[in-house]
Amino acid sequence: MHPLTRREFLGALAAGTAWSALGRRAGDRIPAVGIQLYTVRALMAAQPERTLEALAGIGYREVELAGLYGMTAARMRALLDANGLAAPSAHLSLEALRDDWARTLDDARALGLRYVVCPWVNEEDRTLDGYSRLAQQFNVIGERARAAGLQFAFHNHDFVNRPLPDGTVPYDLLLRACDPHLVQMEMDLYWMIAAGGAPTAYFARWPGRFPMLHVKDRTLSGAMTDVGDGTIDFASILAAAHAAGVKHWFVEHDEPKDPLASARRSYAYLSRLESPPTPH
Fold this sequence. Notes:
two-stranded antiparallel ribbon; 48% helix; 10 strands; alpha/beta; TIM Barrel; 8-stranded parallel barrel
């Protein structure tokens, strides 16, 4: 991935000027459009200062972290503050959450996090017994996080939403077995739908369990694409998400050809998105 050029950087800032007023008008739609920094990870590794400034110029006000790109938590916080960005959430390995809590907590406090999120399940744990053990571990981590003023959450991939051989859906097992006050969920819309799940059905069945969303779009063939360019009905999801208590929307694209252009297009779409009117 090439470094962020001056042209790309200035283009992002110019786009932000055009969309900032629209973003304010859309405040009653999505309160603050955020982005998972995994989308721009190569740019963050090469030029974190310029990348964060470009994202702020587009209009983003929240980011979700996926690593610190060689910086200390204090340095990352300083860069975020300088650009008017908040990091309410970060993805952390299960090992860091389970076995290195003191350092994890120090970084979380320095960054001003509200949520610490486990984003992955190792392949050897993807069994009925494995998920049951994970639920117990999640409750322990969640209790530890709550005592520190944080909220623990789990992020899904498609394998968590696909039935096991006995028909159990691991995601449902975790929702049932985890204490709702200790373990909340960050729903990845792309992976949920890729596995045949219905986000709005989960919102209706488990209100209050989903404070955060990963907002990704998919084509008819299943390829990931910029938000608004695919087939996912975000307007209907928006209405159900508001009712279910979703607070944070993080744009993500795992492999964008042009990360900043992708971030810009997704922000523009979400900024003007409106949920369908409520029938009377």
